[in-house]
Amino acid sequence: MIRIAVLFAALLAVASCSVPTTPVDEAPQDLGDFALGHNIVVAPELVKGPLSREASKEVWINSVKSAVEARLGRYEGERLVHLGIHISGYILAQPGVPILMAPKSAVGITVTAWDDRAGGKFNDEAKEIFVIETLTGASVIGSGLTMSAEEQMANLSYKVAKEIEDWLYENRACMTESPTAAELSACWRDNKDERLEEARKAKDVQ
Fold it and tell me: How far apart are CA 116 and CA 122, in angstroms?
């Protein structure tokens, strides 16, 4: 069970790379026979982190769902893969907070991929994904001073969708017609996000 409150307190000291929020114009990756089926996003127990702006479950769900559809809806394979995405918690940096305390915007999710053909999960353990805004450019003192809450969510949702795409790419062999036994044994295994551990360590040294 992820300790969401601990995680998002720790995120005050951690940052990562920025991403654009423009429509996806990168070339698709090789995802085997992947085609996006159901794109289900839920947030039943959404946790707002410290020093965060408010954002409703509905707005978060729509933001993540739209970003996933824009990125993964491009694939036209013959194997439907349904995604179940759970938004766990977030921080949206706000203005009016001293620079040294200003949090960076972040969101944490888990995702499960379902194989329509087999009628079951690809990954028994949900994949953890945590994304954090950049420390470069305009957001060096926190995006709360330069971006609206909607823009912050769009930025984070774009990055979430990209990380899901990268995760599917890592496991592409198991979304082909006839994966080998060795490929099957290697797929869907590394579902922990190392940045969670980094966030915990950052909190420990504060």
Answer: 10
Token readout for 60 is: 């978060």
Q: How far apart are CA 121 and CA 142, in angstroms?
A: 38
Dist. CA 165–CA 27, nearest whole Å? 12
Tens-place pLDDT, residues 189-204: 888 877 655 654 544 4
List 111's β-bridge partners, or say none: 85, 127
Distance CA 191, CA 34 (A): 19
- State the pLDDT at residue 133: 81
DSSP assignment of 85-154, as one string? EEEEEEE-B-TTS-TTTPPPPEEEEEEEEEETTTTEES-SSPEEEEEE--SSGGGGG-GGGT--HHHHHH
